[in-house]
Amino acid sequence: MGEIIGYNDYSRDEYVVSGPQGASTIRATKEEDFFFRDELTTCPFCSSIMQRVYHAWAELNWGTNGYEGNVVLECSSCRWWEYNYTWECEGSSWDLDDFEKRTTRGIAKRFDLASATVPLDILSEEATRRPEVLYETNPTRFEQLVGHVFSAHYNCEVIHCGRSNDRGIDLILVNSDSPVLIQVKRRSNPRATEKVSAVREFLGSLVLQQARKGIFVSTAKKFSASTHDAAASVVTRSIVDQFDLFDFDRFCAMLRTVGETQSRPWEKLLRMLEVEQDSFGTLDLKVDCYDINSRRPQKGPGLNVVLGSREPEPVSRFEELE
User: Is residue 179's pLDDT more than 80?
Assistant: First the structure.
């Protein structure tokens, strides 16, 4: 039975020292390994290369010396992640006055592909990287995934109505006065060809529902020639205004497009931290590295930090780490 792993939940360790005479707070699973170890180079789960996908930093300007650093590492294969936050402020005598290090790590959770309860965001993320998991996905959950992808792609509401006696209608895409009816077929054979019989039945449902637009989505490798002829014929004869066929490759292309716009788990964490920091006055962080799904350059001039899904903005002068 197939399974997928998600890292949306996380755990946090911290090591805090407040002043030479102050109390120390240690909540690390393994204090020495946590505090003194070098930056990870390989994933502890799958041994793939860890990539630095986010790095933001700032120098404190409060009449004293200090530094704040934010680093996110992500596995290039399974996408496990770790976020390290470091903050230090030196006293007037150059003694360490305050120091904080907090590490947040993704928690691995396994999900059965055949389950109808596998989280849609994790299924979508995994299918973007490994489309073949769709062949083993629970049919009902696949219908809901299709609805999720179409809703995000067209920025509209999609109603899931797939059930027994659904008269061939699994989803309704509501983006205009004329809704689009969608039928979804999850075929388990990667070499399957979607035959004309299933499409004709769906076309009959459109006519009975007096619908003018329809979409047929299948994980089949392709649609038969007679299926394409039937789809073109109903539009040419004005039986319907629109009738689209989505085979495996076409649906996966839309899935990848949607996946490029979705936030990673660590991005969501950064956005949450930004809200918390705003209430205390966010420091003027500079971004040296911000790469999420290859949408942003790995290196470049210093950037005013904008956490979460918003675009960073260039600063007035070029700044780089030494």
Answer: yes
Q: Which residues contact 2 (CB under 8 A, 6 or more apart)?
A: 112, 113, 114, 133, 136
25-29, 70-74, 215-219, 268-272: which has the highest mean pLDDT?
215-219
* Average pLDDT value for the chain: 79
283: number of Cβ within 10 Å: 18
Helical pair 225-236 and 196-208, crossing angle rounded to 10 deg = 20
Q: Out of 168-172, 181-185, 273-277, 281-285, which region has the weakest mean confidence (pLDDT)?
A: 281-285
Q: Is 308 helix (H, G, I), strand (E, B) or coil?
A: coil
125: tokens are 């993320």
Largest CA distance in the chain: 86
Contacts of 121 (CB under 8 A, 6+ apart): 6, 8, 262
For 17, phi then psi, to 5°, come to -125, 125
Q: Do 269 and 242 meet the contact criterion of CB atoms below 8 Å apart?
A: no
What are the strands, taking DSSP E only, across the chain? 3-6, 10-18, 24-27, 50-59, 65-75, 81-90, 96-106, 109-112, 157-160, 171-174, 180-185, 193-194, 213-218, 222-223, 242-246, 286-290, 303-304, 313-314
The span from the CA of 48 to the CA of 89, in Å, is 35
Full set of structural domains in the chain with CATH: 3-110+284-314 (no CATH), 116-259 (3.40.1350.10)
CA 113 to chain centre: 18
pTM of the model: 0.77
